[in-house]
Amino acid sequence: MINLCHILNHLNNSQSQKCKLKRMIKIDLKLFVTLSKYLPDNSEGLEIPDGTTVEKLIFDVGIPKELVKLIFINGKKQNDSYQLKDNDRVGLFPPVGGG
Amino acid sequence: MGISNLKARYDRNFNTLSIEEQQKLGSSKVIIIGLGGLGGSVCEMLARTGVGHLTLIDGDVFEASNLNRQLLCQENLIGFPKAQAAKNRVNDINSQVKVRCYIEYVDESNLYDHIKDADVVMDCLDTIDTRFMLQKAAEKASIPIVSGAIAGVAGQVTTIFPQDKGYELIYGKKGRHQSTGVETKTGNMAHCALFVAALQSSECLKLLLDRGDLLRNKLLIAELWTNTFEIMDLV
């Protein structure tokens, strides 16, 4: 009986993890200045897998990583390990230094 | 300046500013480093508003490519030092401003001595390396920096106090950044340069008058193709 419960729990956890991995979220993506050419279609409400990091997003969109200097999520600076959440507003900025 | 003269010259500053605030500006000292697209316009606005002491520094001379955006650049001034042109312009606008100009580039050897007596230093530079040098000198001198940067039709503004992390939050750790940004690819447009210069001037006046909200530990980002204006938290 104990073994059966253990197996059932294990199956349930596996299923919920599978569901979690498949769950898609929507984000708003803005790319500025020289990055704007990498902007995908449907950048407002862009669907990505839940748990995607900004680093992965940058890769998936096709932006060379070294071109991104500033990452803003919902108006706050973040680093590229940030895990994106549903309805996040993402802004990526290159280095700007002219006077 | 006597009260009656002050009232006449700055009539349209009142009552956005009080007489006391106008007098405070008159005794304030601001140094502007870099007199190109940003610095030339900052210089014009601060002189008109009535900042009483301006120190202007730039080692460069005007060239034809400056004509598209630099307020002080004219066809008859190609080859003329920007700092001297800025001083002449301030004298023409407001002879009551005490203005000094230095036709020289700044680096670690001269920055501290130039800025140490100022109330605010305006970063209108065009290289990221020199911005880091300026922050080091301003930290030593305990002077706030108002920084502006532009590329194409995008710009950013922030205000850095001596104890703040400042540029590291924007460009990354010192030494791990490029010396220039994407402006080398995009160029710089006049309307964006003047827009960012206006925001810098506003920050400067707020600092001098201890009034309003500052962009401390915040970065105002603007992108004019898309009418994006956002204030981001840097910490």
CATH classification, class level of chain A: Alpha Beta
What structural class is derived from the secondary structure elements of chain B? alpha/beta
Level-2 CATH architecture of chain A: Roll
- Can you tell me the residue ranges of chain A where pLDDT is under 50 for at least 5 consecutive residues? none
Q: What percentage of residues of chain A falls in helices of 4 or more residues? A: 25-40%
CATH superfamily of chain A: Beta-grasp domain
* Secondary-structure element pattern of chain A, one letter each: HEEHEEE
Domain count of chain B, please report it.
Answer: 1
Number of discrete domains of chain A: 1
Could you give the order of strands across the largest sheet of chain A? 2-1-5-3-4
Main structural class of chain A:
alpha+beta
Shape of chain B: globular
Helix content of chain B: 25-40%
Counting H and I runs of at least 4 residues, what is the number of helices of chain A? Answer: 2
Give the strand content of chain B.
Answer: 15-25%
CATH topology of chain B: Rossmann fold
In the predicted model, the low-confidence regions of chain B spanning at least 5 consecutive residues are: none
Strand residue percentage of chain A: 25-35%
Tell me the strand order in the biggest sheet of chain B: 3-2-1-4-5-6-7-8
Order of helices and strands of chain B: HHEHEHEHEHEEHHHEE
